[in-house]
Amino acid sequence: MLSLTCKTAIKAVIYLSSKFESGEKSGIKEIAEYIDASEHTVGKLLQTLVKENVINSSKGPTGGFYMNATQQRQPIINIVFAIDGKEVFNQCGLGLSKCSATHPCPIHNDYKAVRDLFEKLCSNKRVSDLCDPVNNGLAYLIG
Predict the structure, then answer these.
(1) pTM
(2) Burial code of 61-83, b = ≥16 C-beta within 10 A, e = fewer?
(3) Which of 88, 129, 130, 142 lies 20 to 30 Å (CA to CA) from residue 75?
(4) For every one of its 143 residues, what pLDDT tens digit does the chain have, with 9 covering 90 and above?
């Protein structure tokens, strides 16, 4: 359902969120290494996330990427919308362009239920909700 880039963006945001309390800023290389992703991909998606106000950045010797308190409380769906767009929650499970309730694919009804539940999860879970278990060692961002 989500693109690999979007999944990478969510991991990057959770990583930045984990630095919120200490006030640390992180660079592209550090983030990419921690979440095991390419620096090129991470750099591009971080630019998009800054543009969409999901995260912040500052330039200079003490610069880097970081989050503020408001961004900590934002729903995960903001990341999904910034990277994959709003249409991700309307797409067909089989990738058909003309799938609908009146012209359904073979998995339409089941997939729609799962997709709607996932959209609700993304709307209700906040960045801090996903960061807390990582900070407490109960969840992980790398395999």
Answers:
(1) 0.92
(2) eeebbbbeeebbebbbbbbbbbb
(3) 142
(4) 899 999 999 999 999 999 999 999 999 999 999 999 999 999 999 999 999 999 999 998 889 999 999 999 999 999 999 999 999 999 999 999 999 999 999 999 999 999 999 999 999 999 999 999 998 889 988 77
